[in-house]
Automatic annotation (TrEMBL):
Pfam families: Transferase. GO terms for molecular function: hydroxycinnamoyltransferase activity. This is Uncharacterized protein. InterPro entries: Plant_Fungal_Acyltransferase. It comes from the Eukaryota. Belongs to the plant acyltransferase family. Keywords: Acyltransferase, Transferase.
């Protein structure tokens, strides 16, 4: 079904004056973790049905008022990028309360009908098209789209060097609480970026971070090919709770939902790709470093605190090994992102001041095959994303233009489970669909 979306209003929302904490225009340095994050905007789109909770659904004005209230506690979102003369022109934050761009829009459809049909056909019209090349571009942007039934879709675009997924989960929950309570419930997140990456004196990096977290001459990203975008198929796989329980029983020991689903997906995608048994395959796994650093960083720290692990196996071994064995490989790789590694990375950030550092984020059309890249939003607090009409009925993934990317998201369905959103080479999709629920 064809759905048109019309932008009806554009407005810059600034933090509530009474509570604003960063409006002096002070500058704040990006950490090494910020510099390693994708230099681009990450969209997120959530939907709420209109009919079931129309009486409690907040107005656009209430949502914007809650946003203004909570931005006072998250000044980086309302700031802008600038240059830091003290760090040889490196990018920094300008905490000037310049504001968040909010678009209001109307869709010519019933939300339930749109969700039941091919919502992917218009999902890219449901969030702002931020452009990192535009001067003074807002770092966080919002679109509120109302459907004919009263249903609401909130689409956002946030520059990744402002915050990681853990941080945005905290922010979204805080925003929703501010709307529900009329701005009376506001958090106090930890926002001192200088305190979370303290280098040694002198800095002593012990690992090759320039080629691991950044796109140095020997980074593996240089070996990846490209695919025409029309050959990269986005698909969603729903894993019910009972499937996850069965998978954990197959493992035979303690394992997290993320570990067992990653092991399963790695096996099945590799089989569907029909790779040579002698070839090697690896997964780039995002690792939250908050609890791994010493001293530990508060879980409500707002910023980036992610590094990556790289479990690697020969195709023959991956396909023939038990789930328990594959999970052990994943665990071992993640365990290497420890206190020593994190400190080394902080030291590297200090030693590399003045150097041109490019994040390893993949460009449009990149083909990771034989590898994968995975991110987990399983800790995302969807149940807390209640603006007054209940939690969202759906998370709508935008188009992913990179082959081999996996994202695990908790299902919004009443029966729970996990959604796996992924992008594969079109020629491997049918084979994957045939085996994706097989535990053999």
């Amino acid at each position: 079904m064809a759905v048109s979306v019309e932008i009806t209003r554009r407005e810059m929302i600034r933090p509530t004056v009474m509570a604003a904490s960063g409006g002096g225009g002070e500058k704040a340095k990006l950490t090494a973790f910020d510099h390693a994050a994708t230099d681009g905007y990450i969209p997120a789109v959530f939907a709420w049905h209109g009919a079931a909770a129309a009486a409690a659904a907040p107005s656009n004005d209430a949502i914007k008022d809650g946003l203004a209230a909570v931005l006072a506690r998250f000044p980086h979102l309302a700031g802008r990028f600038d240059e830091d003369e003290d760090q040889r022109g490196r990018r920094c934050f300008r905490l000037d309360d310049a504001g968040v761009l909010v678009l209001e829009a109307a869709a010519t459809a019933d939300l339930a009908d749109a969700l039941a049909h091919d919502v992917s056909a218009h999902v890219n019209e449901l969030y702002p098209k931020a452009d990192k090349e535009r001067a003074d571009e807002p770092l966080f942007q919002v679109q509120l789209t109302r459907y004919t039934c009263g249903g609401l879709v909130i689409g956002t675009a946030c520059h990744h060097q402002v915050a990681d997924g853990q941080s945005m989960s905290v922010f979204y929950a805080a925003w929703a609480a501010a709307v529900r309570t009329g701005g009376t419930t506001l958090p106090t997140p930890f926002i001192d970026r200088a305190a979370v990456t303290v280098p040694r004196c002198p800095p002593a990096p012990a690992f090759d971070h320039g080629n691991i977290e950044f796109k140095g001459e020997y980074n593996r990203s240089h070996s990846y090919g490209t695919l025409p975008l029309e050959k990269i198929r986005n698909l969603a796989v729903h894993f019910p709770d009972e499937f996850v329980v069965g998978l954990k029983a197959r493992v035979g020991g303690r394992c997290s939902t993320f570990q067992c689903l990653l092991a399963h997906a790695w096996k099945k995608i590799t089989a569907a790709r029909d790779l040579s048994p002698e070839e090697f395959t690896q997964v780039r796994v995002a690792v939250n470093c908050r609890g791994r650093a010493k001293p530990a960083v508060p879980m409500d720290y707002f910023g980036n605190m992610v590094l990556w692990a790289f479990p690697r196996m020969q195709v023959r071994d991956l396909l023939s090994s038990s789930y328990a064995a594959v999970i052990a490989v994943i665990r071992d790789a993640v365990a290497r992102v420890d206190e020593e590694y994190i400190q080394s990375f902080a030291d590297f950030g200090e030693a590399a001041i003045g150097q041109e550092l490019s994040p390893t984020a993949a460009g449009l059309g990149t083909m990771f095959c034989p590898d994968l890249e995975v991110d987990s939003w399983l800790g995302f607090r969807f149940h807390d994303l209640d603006f007054g009409g209940g939690p969202p009925c759906a998370f709508l993934p935008p188009y992913v233009p990179v082959e081999g990317v996996l994202i695990f998201v908790p299902s919004c369905a009443a029966k729970g489970g996990v959604e796996m959103f992924m992008a594969l080479d079109d020629q491997h999709v049918d084979a994957f669909r045939q085996i994706c629920y097989s535990m053999d």
